[in-house]
Design brief:
alpha/beta, seven-stranded mixed β-sheet, globular
C-alpha cells in the first residue's frame, strides 16, 4: 500500500508534460498522440496502446493477453498478430534477460516499440523497468506511471522521459 502512494508522489515530482521534452520525436508523439483528445479506452495503458498503434501505423503486434488482442482487432481489423517480426510488443511485464533473448533472436527491429503495463505495480516490477531502460540497446523510454514505453531507435541518443498522461 505504501509503495503505491510513495511511488506515485515521486513520479509526480519528477514528471513533466510536453513542455519538459527536448526531443522532437518524443515531443511530437506526446502532443499529437498521448495528449490527443481522442479517448479509445478507459484504461490508460490500453488507451496508450490503441493511440500508439494508429500514430505509428503499426502493422505487426505481439500481445499475450487474448482479451486485449481482441479489442485491438476490433479497432484495427487489418493488424497482424506476429511473434517473429514485431513492430510493437504489449506485455504485462518484461525483464532484461527476456528482452535480450528476444532481441538476439531478431524479433525486434529499429523502430520497434514495447509497451509494458503497470510498471509501478510493485517494487519488483519497478526494478525490472529500471534494469530494462538501463540497457544500451534501449535508446528511448517513457515512464507514464500507468505504463512504460520503450523505443529501439539507433538514430537517437539515449534518453529517458517521465511524462504525465
Amino acid at each position: 500500500m505504501w509503495f503505491g502512494a510513495v511511488s506515485y508522489l515521486f513520479f509526480l515530482i519528477k514528471s513533466t508534460n510536453e513542455h519538459g521534452v527536448h526531443s522532437p520525436f518524443i515531443y511530437k508523439f506526446v502532443t499529437q498522440c498521448l495528449y490527443s483528445k481522442k479517448r479509445l479506452h478507459k484504461n490508460k495503458s490500453i488507451n496508450v496502446l490503441l493511440k500508439s498503434i494508429a500514430y505509428f501505423n503499426i502493422e505487426n503486434i505481439s500481445i499475450t493477453n487474448k482479451s486485449i488482442a481482441k479489442l485491438v482487432k476490433q479497432h484495427y481489423p487489418k493488424i497482424e498478430f506476429n511473434d517473429t517480426d514485431i513492430d510493437m510488443l504489449f506485455v504485462e511485464e518484461l525483464n532484461a534477460p527476456s528482452f535480450q533473448k528476444m532481441l538476439s533472436e531478431g524479433k525486434f527491429h529499429n523502430d520497434s516499440l514495447i509497451l509494458i503495463q503497470s510498471i509501478y505495480q510493485n517494487e519488483e516490477r519497478l526494478e525490472q523497468w529500471q534494469q530494462l531502460i538501463a540497457l544500451a540497446s534501449i535508446t528511448v523510454s517513457i515512464d507514464m506511471y500507468h505504463c512504460g514505453l520503450i523505443f529501439i531507435r539507433s538514430e537517437q541518443v539515449k534518453e529517458h522521459f517521465t511524462i504525465r498522461i
